[in-house]
Structures are given as C-alpha cells and as structure tokens.
Amino acid sequence: MTPQNPDSRARLGLRESATFDRTTIAAIQRAADTGIYDIRGWGAKRALPHFDDLLFLGASMSRYPLEGYRERCATDVVLGDRFAKHPLHLDIPVTIAGMSFGALSGPAKEALGRGASEVGTSTTTGDGGMTPEERGQSKTLVYQYLPSRYGMNPDDLRKADAIEIVLGQGAKPGGGGMLLGQKISERVAAMRTLPQGIDQRSACRHPDWTGPDDLTIKINELREITDWEKPIYVKVGASRVYYDVKLAVHAGADVVVVDGMQGGTAATQEVFIEHVGIPTLAAIPQAVQALQELGVHRPAAGGAADRKGVQLIVSGGIRNGADVAKALALGADAVGIGRLQGLALAAAGPEGVVHMLKLLENEVQCVLGNLGLTSYDQLGPEHIYMEPDTVNPPHKLSAFPLLEEGY
Amino acid sequence: MEQIVPATQFDLRDTPLRDVNAALHAPDLTGDFVVRHPAGAHNVAVGLDAPVTVTVDGHVGYYAAGMNQRADVVIHGNAGTGVAENMMSGTVWVKGDASQSAGATAHGGLLVIEGNAAARCGISMKGVDIVVGGSVGHMSAFMAQAGRLVVRGDAGEALGDSIYEARLYVRGDVASLGADCIAKPMDPEHHRELGELLKAAGFDDDDTSAYTRYGSARTLYHFHADNTSAY
Ligand SMILES: Cc1cc2nc3c(=O)[nH]c(=O)nc-3n(C[C@H](O)[C@H](O)[C@H](O)COP(=O)(O)O)c2cc1C
Asked: In sequence order, which residues have a C-beta less than 8 Å from that of residue A283 and are 6 or more positions away?
C-alpha cells in the first residue's frame, strides 16, 4: 500500500491533544508507514527525577568547611575486599562503565584505558570480549561476564583485575544486547563467532544459570577458576533493586553495580529505554537499604571496622562532580560513567578523558570540603536537601510500596 | 623408556574442593589425576589449562570441567547443569547423563555424553563439538553459533531456535524445530564430518545416512518488524 502523504494526512483533520501530541502522532504515522519498531542507542529521553532534585547543605554555623586546596580530603576507595585476595584500590570513586568493543572502537577503548590509568581508576570491558589493546592500556580492568558470552575466554578472565557478572543494564533491564549490522565488522564478528554484517541479538538470560541459588554456584565457579583472587561484581539494571541487591549479596557478590534507567546503551528497543526500569535516584536508597539490613553497607564508617562490606557502584546519568557527590551522599561507594566519557572523548580526544576524570575528582573534593568532610564515606543523606518524598524509601516510583512494612 | 607415574589421588571427603582445583591449576602441570568421592560437588575440576587427564569417580554437580582448556576429563557418573560450559579445548567425557546447558557457550574441544542430556544442550555453543549418546531436551542448540552437535537419540522441542552457523545432526525424532532452524541435505562433506565425530565419541558403527542435518535458514540475520511474529 502507498503511504498517505502528509497533505492527505492533514486533510484527515488530525488535531493535537495532550495525549496525542505532535510527536506522538508523528511516531504513529512512522510506525504505520514502516512497520518497524524503534531500536536506538543513548538512553531515556523523558524527564525523570534526577540528581538535579537534590542540593547540598553547605557548611555555615552548625558545620564548618575545610580550607579548599589546603586540607586534603580523601577520595580513594577499596572495592571487593569481602572475599577476594586482591581487592581493587582506586584513587577516585569514579569508574568507567562497561562498553562493548563493537559499540566503541578499539582506539576509543584504548583512550579510556589510558585516561583511567592516569587518574588511578578502572575501566570495564563489555559485550564482545576483551581486546589486547584494552588490557594493555588499562591498569585496572574489570572483565564483564555477560549472557551472550561473546568472546568469553578463561585466559582473559585470569588476566582481569575483577569480574563483573552482568544481569542487566538500566536502559533495558531484562533486555539483551543489540548491535546492528553496520557495526559487526570483520574483527567484531570474529571475536563474537558471528557472521559479519548481521544484525546481532545478544541473549538476555545467562545460558547456564537462572535465579539466585544458581548464581551462588556460578560465583563460586568463577572464584574457583581464578583461585579466589579477584573481586566479583554483580551488575543489575534498576527495577526490583531492594530484592536484587539482597539476593546478589547472598549469592556472594563483593560489589553490586546498580544501573538506573537513565543509563546509556549502545542499542536496544525504544520501548525498553523509555518504559522499563526505575530512575537512578529511586534505585540508590533501595540498594542502600538492602545493604544496611544485611550489615554490609560501609561497615567501617558505622564503627564495625573489622566487618567487610559490599560496595555499591551506581551508574545511570552521571554528568558532573556534583552528581557523583550526590550519589555518594545517598550511599554509593563509587559511580560508573558511560556516556559522560564518550562525550568527553568526542569533544577533546584522549586528553578530554583525563580532563573529565580529574574534574570529577576535584569537584567531589570541593563538595566534601564545603561540607567539612575529610573522606567520601562521611558523606550521607544528612548533607543533602531533598524535596520531601523525592528519594526517601519507599520511593513513590518504587516497584515495592510494601517495603514500608519491613521484610 | 617412558616412566610410569601413578595418578595423583584427591579425595573430596577430606580435601576441600578449593585445594583440589588449586592443585590442578599449578603451573606446568602434567600427569594423571583422580578425584574420588565427588558426591555431587559443584565446580569440580574447573578452569584447567594443562595437558593432563582427570578422572572423576562419581556424580558431579554444576559446571564440572567448566572452561576446560587442554585437559581430558572423564566423569564416571552423571553431571549437573553446565558441564564443560565455555570449554575452549581438550575433551570432557560424561559416562552417565548430563543435566541442563551441557556444553553451554563452549568455544572448542569435544564433549561426549554417553547418556542423555537435558534441556539447552549446546546453548549458545561457539565452536565446540558435542556428541550425545542418547536424547537431548528442549531448546537444545538455542542460538548456537558454531560447532557441531550430534544427537544419537531424539531432540526435544524448539531444536536450534535462532541458530546461527552451528551444524546439528539428529538420528531420531525432533519434537519441533525452533525459529529459523530447518532440515538440510546431507552432502558427502556432512557424512564425512558426522562419521568423524561419531568415531571420536566411540560410536563408529552408526550409519550416517540414518541422520538428518539441521541448520540455520538465515532469515533472522537482519531485523525487520515482520520477524517479530517468529518469536
Ligand atoms: C555505547 C555504550 C555501550 C555499552 N555497552 C555495555 C555493555 O557491553 N555491557 C554493559 O553492561 N553495559 C553497557 N553499557 C551501559 C554502561 O555500562 C552503563 O551502565 C551506562 O552507560 C551508564 O549510564 P551513563 O551512560 O548515563 O553513564 C553501554 C553503554 C553505552 C553508552
């Protein structure tokens, strides 16, 4: 059938309304014309509660600030000291999130690795496996263990400094990866054992385990294979965060990564990006509550110096040092960044990556000093102002309103 | 003359699994090893990367011989979920039956299961060869990318769903084929390939013409809205 032309559409007398606004109508018309649903990258475009809804309560009478540039405040962080023989020690509480080789080019991954190494933090592989270039450039490299297992190689597992079991991503909790044909180059195809040029779907479910009991065994397998040396992270896309974090800790994770729905993605169905998952801001308090109830949230700061904690890395929509500091204040131990580094790289090349990471560190230090704190784990919810109801658990956007009643 | 060195014995009743696996990871390891009384333990002989033989005397739990490289592992019993998952090379030989996801995502080597294998045998396989003496459960060879799966018995529902370039050979009935998986003709090349696989697994006497080959119709390689009804 020939599509109706715009003029004849106008003659149909289409009029905008609040529900059917111009963009919605255009989307319907496009869908009818092509019969193809949208697959795209980037992340959610809709407005969501975000870090902008929080403000810091700077020092004044009741607290006094540190002298900026003189009194040092620490921003280093230890990740994965619960079971691993070799926990990671990062100089800044900002890590580079996993991005697939394929979605990112080899040089881009190398530049991220060099930049991260220069400022003392980690980078993460992604769907499609580890490249030698990336391993060469990143002093500290986290190896993702994904449902697709593309390029999954025990040699690389042993070469990694930590292992991240990926259950999902904030942009598409429950959704598998996608990489369209034009990105499946000869090298990418060979690493993934796939025909070149096909539109590739990654599995959304791990092929050899389902559920928390299996995950416990899987984590043990990875520990046995690597002789209990490496921290094991579990990454979840934010949806039922409170439960998922509890289960991940029970299964033996050293670090839990929670990626909110504002998180970036290389590609997925639009319907996932905009309608599945909960915002980063709503996710953090749920994760923190779960860790607190299990007694593994910043135990040292709480006075239990001998108890090992499980660290929380939060990602999804981090744009600047203020966002980092706010995530830490809500209870994260570190953040992960994806698109921010992509933008920095695109704007100013490899140098942009280093600039950006240093800026984030400086901004976090500024905030800490301004609040009169000497290390990030002193940052807490008492240092931020939030509109009532914005982030208190249970959040109004929580999938679990019953949390209030305890569990 | 070659020296005969007796096999090193581990007894899982009194040696912790962690010590056994650590010993099997020793640098430049050679020789023969026996693991006794596994009693269904998970993660037995995982992450090996040496030209050794490991004989496991009994049933094992999840992920036995997971990620194997170069070693020849024989399990005298049944194997739990994910036996030889992500194997890269070497052989894993199960004398009994295997549970779900046998040989999942394995990139190379040979996995022989003399008995039956449960669901998802060869899921996301990436180059491994798997020979199953009996039948396989549903969703076997799901998203299978490369390698060969031989089934001497029957296959459960949705065999080879969303399969890529792996080759499947089944002698018995297939309950149903998954999306984009079709029967394909047996050319001389395929008879030869199948014959070699059967021989490697000790089933030399099978008549290759009793088998049917299955593979990808390659209609799902490019996204289109019309394909959504295929899932
Ligand atoms: C180009 C790109 C590729 C990505 N690839 C992966 C991946 O392979 N595995 C994964 O777990 N997450 C992947 N992600 C998600 C990031 O790890 C991270 O969760 C997300 O980008 C954080 O949100 P942000 O971009 O707002 O910082 C990818 C993100 C982008 C932008």
From this structure: A170, A238, A241, A258, A260, A314, A316
